[in-house]
Amino acid sequence: MSIDKNSLWTYVALGALGIFGPILFPDYTLSIAYLWMMVLMASTWDTLGGQMGYNSLGNITFFGVGMYASAIVQISFFYEGGVGEYTSAMGSIKPEFTAAEYFWGLSLGIMAAGIAGLAMSLLFSTFMFGLRGPYFAIGSLGLAIAAAEITITINYVGGASGISMPLFPGEIEFRSTFFYMLCFGFAVVSHFLLRWLYSTQFGLAANAIRDDEDKAEAMGIPTLAYKRLGWGIAAFFMGCMGAIAGNMAGFIDKEVAYPIPTFGIFMVAMALLGGKGTLWGPVLGAIIFHVVKETTWTYLLNLQWIALGLILIINIVYFQQGIMGWLQTKFPERFGIVVDGSTSQDADGGNAGGKEAA
Predict the structure, then answer these.
(1) How far apart are CA 317 and CA 17, in angstroms?
(2) What are the pLDDT tens digits along the chain (358 aa)?
(3) Are 349 and 279 in contact (CB under 8 A)?
(4) 210-249 burial, b for 16+ CB within 10 Å, e for fewer?
(5) Could you give the number of structural domains in the chain?
(6) Count of CB atoms situated within 10 Å of the CB of 296
(7) 1 DSSP 8-state letter
(8) 271 with 42: CB under 8 angstroms?
(9) Does residue 191 contact residue 39 with C-beta atoms inside 8 Å?
(10) List of E strands, the chain
(11) Residue 17 belongs to what domain range?
(12) pTM (predicted TM-score)
């Protein structure tokens, strides 16, 4: 897995932002933390949506499941009354966790969240991948809506009232930095895992599924196994990020755990904006989308959704292949793409750009 010169400088710039961002912009630490969360969401969505052509609208399901799984582990491991009593007691009783209990609980909770997301993806993929095209998109969206509605009927996790998460034991300034480091760390790990994965046979098989799944099956490619692997990776990281987001918020309920109209749509929009089917496209799309969102939220609050809507309209009408796709088509040689139809591999680790340009 070699890194070309352009990618190297990009890594240096993003690494500098990741390391020095909280130092240079201390007032925007949590905002930048959410930027890395967006990068992870868009990148992992693209594993199935861009690389394989299965546009999921339900990846937010694993985000919410991970959030609740983490809360259950964090509370039940160190509070004798269990989650049900803990949630019902909030307001009259304030259970306190020691620093060791909090950080141990959080660590175990994040691991449990990732495993819960992975388990759910394996469970539902047994019948979800019987759907294709818009049917899969609608089915996955229905999965997210159903998960949200079922959650509010379970009193053990607070029902519609939600759960107040354990309080962070440190200073408020360190709290922001701590969760920032978690978001940045998971974004980095997921990126390099996907970079390596796309350079293996998985990348070729995924693109074969996207181009013509029936032919891929006829050639002996185990398409279901690759689809389950791609969705499982996305579900694992979404579950872990859900656990982190729940603790960042300090309180979880249906709206926080399953933000379908916002994060559920944002991750798709970011991948489309940057260019789905490429390694760097979702990263670029997430950065641009998040910066515009935060800027309009701060200075043009009443026009925020108009600005985001205009981005999507321009993207769909004029840049259907996304920014990275447009750049690869316009300047193929800068991405190591051979245009004469011979074997090609784009420099960012994905295969989509080379195939489209060929």
Answers:
(1) 32
(2) 667 777 888 899 999 999 999 999 998 999 999 999 999 999 999 999 999 999 999 999 999 999 999 999 999 888 877 787 777 655 556 677 889 999 999 999 999 999 999 999 999 998 999 999 899 999 999 999 999 999 999 988 888 888 889 889 988 889 999 999 999 999 999 999 999 999 999 999 999 999 999 999 999 999 999 999 999 999 999 999 999 999 999 999 999 999 998 999 999 999 999 999 999 999 999 999 999 988 888 887 778 788 888 888 888 888 788 888 888 888 777 776 776 654 444 445 444 444 433 3
(3) yes
(4) beebeebeeeebebeebbbbbbbbbbbbbbbbbbbbbbbe
(5) 1
(6) 17
(7) -
(8) yes
(9) yes
(10) 163-164, 251-252
(11) 5-357
(12) 0.89
Residue with tokens 């990741």: 18
Q: For residues 325 and 291, what is the distance between their CA atoms, to the nearest angstrom?
A: 21
Show the tokens assigned to 21: 């961002």
The tokens of 120 are what?
């759910």
CA distance 51 to 211: 10
Question: What is the identity of the amino acid at 122?
Answer: L
66: amino acid identity, one letter: G
